[in-house]
Queue: 2 jobs
Job 1
Amino acid sequence: MNFTRRDFLATMVISSASAALGSRGDAQTADSNASQQHDHHHDDHAAHGHPKPTRPAVPGLPAIIGKVTGTIGVDAAYEMLKRGDNTLDAALHICKTQEDDPNDHSAGLGGLPNAQGEVQLDACCLDGPTRRGAAVAGVRGIRNASLLARVLMEQTGNSLLVGSDAESFALSHGFTKEDLSTERTRSGWELWKRIQSAPETLGSGIYDPNWPEAARKAHFLPGSQRDLDMLIHKLEPLAVQLGFGPALSWRGVYDALVPAAEPLYVSVVNQKNEMSCAATTSGLPWRLPGAVGDIPVIGAGCYLDPEIGSAGSSGNGEANVRIDGAHTIVENMRKGMSPQEAGMDALRRIAKWYKDDMTALRFVEMVYFILRKDGDYESVSLWRGDKSGHVREFTIKDAEGMRRTEECKYLFDGNPPNGVRTTADLQMSHGGNV
């Protein structure tokens, strides 16, 4: 199998870890095994899915919207809304459930660490009935960062608290400090370090407008999903050596090669049209210590106007901060746009920010979750699929009473490793797909 992009991993990592990797087998066997591993990852993704009945014609209340992997606590939160409980209680119940789950690696206990192997958490919450909100960022050792954001909101007049001072504040308000790493996340960090020990890094210049086109095309990202699967397969023995079992080796290598921030954002509205929203994340895996994304930036990763609706994000925080995405969407709805129109407009702004450069946009993922106060909703994605090739989906539970999964509307018909397939696809997608 030939690999372009300077054979980034095959030459840099596999050669330096040849003893660990052992025999690679013939191309046909490798391709078959890579396909099987991708199927295993698909099964893991599908395990979070829910039924997909037809969307009701008329919005209903109460309603909850969020990402697919953030649905463990949705049913209980829905019952809280039906009972008339506080809307922020319901939103934070979902966040806490995910933060407490060591098998979820996007937030709280078991969140993937930064470049120094430390788990740093960001979170925010917005309470529509009281029109208050707050966020925390770069917090270490405090599992329930979303609950800490609420305490900051209720006990102080501050909207953002960061780092060691946020940790001290947490301890002074009854939170307990603990090691948030797990055996799985420590192994993942070790795997990432082994890959990063190669002389050429993954590169940071993709967002530099002066970066030469030739250098962009030599970037590590494989030219197709099949090439990515093959690269992952070749590194799986190294993952096994570092403690990953057969069911987790594909996912471990994938996270090391193609890290992605997948925060949990959740928004709720009750029968009285009262709204709250919250978000929690361990951020981009292997990120620079102290770096934060869009989640603790109120207006970018999370925003709510109780008279209009709410919006939140999952994806490249830097891209979202540039357009103040969540606030932009809510303001679009204030002007009369539907949730779908409001979200697609924000995605077009991101594309325009990168001058519609499809080489650069292959490194950008963005999903918005949008809920209007009357229960109308939508989720929109920059790409139809994610980097692993799965169609982007979201979870909704509303007056129909059934938690269900729906596909996101999208701007570009493709997924980041492959890009858009043809010029016609680009023209159709960039026309809005609305």
Job 2
Amino acid sequence: MTTRISNFNAAAANFAPPAFLATLARYGVSAGGPMAVSAAHFVASLIFLHTLQPAEFGLFSFLLIVVPFSLSIAGSLLAPSLMAALRRNSHIDDATLATHLKANLVIAALALVAVAALMFASHAGAKVALLLGIYGGAMTLRNFARAYAYASKTPLRSLFSDAVYSISLVSGLLLLLAANRLTLGHAAIVLPAAAALGLCAFGPAYLAKQFYPGRDGALREYGEAWREFARWAAFGVVLTELTANAHAYLVTFISGPKAFAVLALGSLLMRPASLVLSALPDIERPRMAAKIGNGDAASAFRTVKEFRTAAVAIWIATIFLAAALLMWFPHVILRKGYDETQALYVLAFWVVILGVRTLRTPEAVFLQAAGEFRALARVSMWSSVTSLAVTLALLLIAGPIVSLAGLIAGDVVMTGNIFALTRQWKHAHA
């Protein structure tokens, strides 16, 4: 009898190995925060969709393109040198952290100005544009705090910050809605307030380091990181943005935010997959960098496979959620003045776009962890040219919806190039 029980316990242990549970927990923590933020943005989008005019909804949707772009730029300027430190020492020392915190302040100020300028150019008023610029700056500061939390192996801090931001954003908008005071101007106050609370969630000790970094580290020390990594990473991010979101800028500036609102309506349903796909690299990139630094490329490639499995699962789950909403609760997504057929066409385009991106992102993150930023910038150049040219041509010939096919063309070119570059890396380091 005792032997049977022992055999059963051994079988149970084999059925749920610690490695599997650790992987599941890691992705749970990694995806939990972004899913909360995605849910908050989804609720906010629905509130704006049903209360604001289409042009104002288009402005908010454009903001959710512009701010993630600023976060990607900031990440490209700071994350590569953090990954290099992890590859060298397996930790981030105080001087390196202080240097990056000082650089983060400068980058956040630039993000504030850039977001404000883009929103003003998109026909937002000066006051609203400034508030949304502050939102972009605060989110940039929070973004580095999240990246540092993952790099220092304290991911729960990032999860807590995401939860505070999400709850603050939704609560603020719901209070405005209940008081019948929800306008674009009032919402523009809630957004930076929620971002600031999310930043404060990292605690007074971190905030003191961020705003008063002390004498350790210096901006001039960042110059070496800029020359070696950051300039190529930033260039690659700009090219990737042109590949991924060329339609947002072209449609908004050529056809206006009202026309972009139609595209945003369809992409709204795929936002969970999009946000998680952009957030998972924060936890996987430092893991891959540490493994590559230890000479364990095989383990790093296993992480790539785990990453793809998780990303595909989220993509499929998002598709089922979108289908369920459209089939059983169409009134939640569609309001008067929006065409259901157009929304379905846009959704179909975004399913394909996110599917292609889901396939390539794990390899792209691996190449970033390996420090291949110059090569990534080169392969991104052709995809950005393709996306811009095809999107602009289709926009002028067939209109905003069909112009989404330009994104598919650019993404396919980028995916092919990234897979080829990964094969080359494997061959060179075999």
